[in-house]
Structure formats: C-alpha cells, structure tokens
Amino acid sequence: MRIGAHVDPVDPLAAAAERGAEVVQFFLADPQGWKAPEPRVDAAALIAADTEIFIHSPYVLNVATTNNRIRIPSRKLLLAHATAAATVGATGLIVHGGHVGSGEDLAIGFDNWRKTFAYAAEQGGFATRVLIENTAGGDNACARRFDALARLWDSVGEFDVGFCLDTCHAWAGGEDLLDIVDRVKAITGRIDLVHANSSRDDFDSGRDRHDNFASGTIDPDLVAAVIRAAGCPAVVETPGGTEGQSADIAYLRERLAQ
Ligand SMILES: [Zn+2]
Fold it and tell me: Could you tell me the distance, in angstroms and rounded to a whole number, from the CA of residue 155 to the centre of ligand 1?
C-alpha cells in the first residue's frame, strides 16, 4: 500500500520527498474560497513523477444543499476541479459528502448529488474520478452515518463514483472502525483512498479535529488495520508539518510491514 500525506500546494513533490511519501494530496485553490483553480507551472513534473497524486476540492463546496446559491456554484466548481486535477495526473478528486439544512429532508440532498453527476455527464463527464468522503458532523449529512451513505449510493452508484474513507471522520461520526471496510464495501463496492488520521475527540463526538497517531484518541492499530483491509493508498492529514506527518507515515509503514 502506498502511504503519503496531505501537503502544502506550493511544491508537493518536494514536500513528498521530505516526508518519504509515495502519495500526495493537495488543494488546487483556496480550500475556503470559490476561486477556480489556476493552471500549475509544475503540471508536467507532477504527471511525470512516481508519486501518486490526489486532489482535495475546497471545503466550501456543498452539492447536496437546497440553497441554490451554494449548490449551483458547487456543482460547477467541482467540475472545474476535476478538469484541473486531470492536468496534474491526479488519480482522484476528493469531495466531502455535504449536507442539507436542519429540518430538511435528506432525500433532497441525495437527489442533488444525483443531479451533480447527471450535470457533469452532460458536460462530458468528470475528467478525474470523484471520490466522495465521509464526514464527521451534523445530523443532516449525506455521508456521516452509513445508513445515509447507503441512500447516497442508491442515488449516485450508477455514475462510477469513488469513495474516500476518513478514519477520523468515521470515528468522530460514530461509525465503528473495527469492521468498517467490509461495511463500506457492502455499500459502495470500493474504497479508493484512506484518509488515515487520528482524532482529538471522542467516538461519536461529531467533531472534525485531526490528530497524530501518538497523541490522538483512536487506537493506531485500528487505523493500520483499516488501510490493510482497504488495500488502497492512504494519506495522513495530520498536524505537525513535516515532522508530525513523517512520524505518522513511519508508524503506518512499520505496522503494515508486520
Ligand atoms: Zn479527510
């Protein structure tokens, strides 16, 4: 299994080398903003590199929402990021599962997801496979609890959608990590990427605060077991910069070698 990290977008290949990462994930635009991604001068180097590349879409996107002033730009920006991700040779584009407002019907959120893929198909399809990521919080999330995830997949499964499993989000979201890969695969049929993170918070806290394996609340052996069972690349999205992430990567490699 290839192990790596979410890194700063300034020089992802240098950041990967510093960490001993075989996989890198980064943003192509401000994660808190609505700007379209700019072409990258290092696109050719990124494509040529042995390092596998994943792109994370901005956090502000919510294709599930009933608010069309958020939903429509989210849909368009997701398509733009998929196009841009292809120019750097990315394997996948990660996007959070999104949510509807409190008191609103989740069925609308699932249908908005279906419309997102239908819209993209009309535009020629996503240039990079979209990986929907499970999220940690909220009672109206499309991909926190796996009963909701199953309904989401009923809506989008026909579109060759990928899945990204975040261990911190699953734990904080109240989904047991012990048999989680089997439970996910029973719904999605696949896991394309693991976000291997510990958590600063307790099980089912609903809080999204990542932590390093040495200090977090999740048994690190469980995270390693998830990666092994998933059999796909994994990236740490943990704090502490080069030092913190290098230690987390080394920990996972050591456990996976056993
Ligand atoms: Zn994540």
Answer: 22
